[in-house]
Amino acid sequence: MLVVFGGLPGTGKTTIARALATRRPAAYLRIDEIEQALRSAAVLAGEVGPAGYVIGNALAASNLALGRTVIVDCVNPVPESREAWRETATRANAALLEIEIVCSDPVEHRRRVEQRSADIAGLALPSWQAVLDRNYAPWPEPHLVIDTARLTVEEAVERVEQEMRAG
Predict the structure, then answer these.
(1) Between the CA of residue 66 and those of 20, 74, 92, 146, 149, what are the distances in Å?
(2) Do 73 and 14 meet the contact criterion of CB atoms below 8 Å apart?
(3) Nearest 10 degrees: CA dihedral of 145, 60, 152, 141?
(4) How many domains does the chain have?
(5) Which tens digits make up the pLDDT trace of 65-122?
(6) DSSP states along 41-110
(7) Which helix (H) or strand (E) holds 112?
(8) N or C: which end of the chain has fewer CB within 10 A?
(9) In 101-122, which positions are buried (b, 16+ CB within 10 angstroms) versus exposed (e)?
């Protein structure tokens, strides 16, 4: 199964995805880690662009081919990135669970964005204004939505696991 977490920075994606990954035997892919590794290696001229997602899909495909569950932690902001995960799952003949993590309380969301610290060396975290200005297209496709203003991490992980068992 390919489990793809998406959502704006500061909503709780990484917290929930990591908690899920510690409970299940699964490969865990964090696109921020891949993108920062590309920046640190200085192998690309200019912006990273879609390179992190392309690499993430390749790693997901490799792990799915081995029969592993793959948990992906990414913003997944545009239809093209979401379609790429769908294509990866289809080519691997794997079930796909798409999850959008939201924080419906703007005060709490802002607090999280402004108070968090980077856990990846060299990663520059976005400001609250950058989160507000980010290109983030709505998801018209069916997907699981988890609101971290209403659920604890444990409740969110349990909800994801329910969907995984049903999937």
Answers:
(1) 20, 22, 10, 29, 36
(2) yes
(3) 0
(4) 1
(5) 999 999 999 999 999 999 999 999 999 999 999 999 999 999 999 999 999 999 999 8
(6) HT-SSS--TTHHHHHHHHHHHHHHHTT-EEEEE----SHHHHHHHHHHHHHTT--EEEEEEE---HHHHH
(7) helix 106-115
(8) C
(9) bbbeeeeebeebbeeeeeeeee
- Percent of residues, the chain, with pLDDT higher than 70: 99
How does residue 45 score in pLDDT terms, banded at 50, 70 and 90?
A: low
Rg of the chain over CA atoms, in angstroms? Answer: 15
Distance CA 5, CA 72 (A): 6
Note down the domain range covering 24: 2-166
**CATH code, domain carrying 45:** 3.40.50.300
Task: Give the CA distances from residue 152 to residues 101, 110, 149, in Å, rounded to whole numbers and listed in that order.
Answer: 12, 18, 8
Q: Which residues contact 46 (CB under 8 A, 6 or more apart)?
A: none
In this prediction the pTM is 0.95
